């Protein structure tokens, strides 16, 4: 059974991705940030040992390291890491900027650093949920500085990881989920083009598929189109 760790697994796209991996027979380690939120616990109870909830705050280095230690006690190898945790909708002041970057940009970096030792003998796939908001060449927004800048930095971060790790057999997926009716603003959005379950189904297909062009890093979207980033 292949294994995956998903951050931001409590709700929205992250939770829907956990459902997708379960349906396709994967062992899921679900990064749990909101123990008071019941959906993830319900998924675990219905799936038994196929889903394990792992306490995780992607913005905290010690929490990430503790999560990696827990998984290392469960398995000798992890096939895939999906970085889905993200926040947005905060004011563009210095405090908010720091909070957004700690989750959206530094969170994936912490995760890769902590979990890479577990991935050396598995599928070696690193996946990142990004956004068109981080694309410089097609930028059209006039606000949301913190969120947009955090995703631009994430895209460069993934590019640098690709440059360093692709030669060692690691493959990468960079995904733009579209305008999702998710929880980025703190509560379930009523506007957007996609439900989390819709974009998660496409994300799973892209994350799990084998590509003949693993030597090229691209950002793909929910319509299976490539985006400049």
TrEMBL record:
It comes from the Bacteria. Pfam families: adh_short (PF00106). SUPFAM superfamilies: NAD(P)-binding Rossmann-fold domains (SSF51735). This is SDR family NAD(P)-dependent oxidoreductase. It comes from Hungatella hominis.
């Amino acid at each position: 059974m292949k294994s995956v760790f998903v951050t931001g697994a409590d709700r929205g796209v992250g939770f829907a991705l956990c459902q997708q991996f379960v349906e396709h027979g994967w062992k899921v380690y679900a990064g749990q940030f909101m123990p008071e939120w019941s959906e993830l616990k319900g998924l675990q109870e219905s799936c038994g040992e196929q889903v394990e909830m792992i306490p995780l705050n992607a913005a905290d280095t010690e929490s990430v390291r503790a999560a990696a230690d827990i998984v290392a006690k469960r398995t000798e190898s992890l096939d895939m890491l999906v970085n889905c945790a993200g926040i947005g909708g905060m004011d563009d002041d210095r405090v908010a900027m720091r909070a957004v970057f700690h989750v959206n940009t530094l969170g994936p970096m912490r995760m890769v650093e902590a979990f890479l030792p577990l991935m050396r003998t598995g599928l070696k796939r690193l996946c990142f949920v990004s956004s068109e908001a981080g694309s410089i060449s097609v930028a059209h927004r006039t606000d949301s500085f913190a969120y947009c800048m955090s995703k631009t930095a994430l895209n460069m971060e993934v590019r640098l990881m690709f440059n360093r790790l692709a030669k060692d057999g690691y493959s990468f997926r960079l995904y733009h989920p579209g305008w999702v009716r998710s929880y980025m603003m703190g509560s379930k959005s009523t506007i957007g083009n996609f439900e989390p379950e819709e974009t998660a189904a496409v994300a799973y297909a892209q994350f799990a598929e084998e590509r003949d062009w693993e030597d090229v890093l691209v950002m793909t979207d929910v319509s299976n189109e490539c985006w400049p980033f």
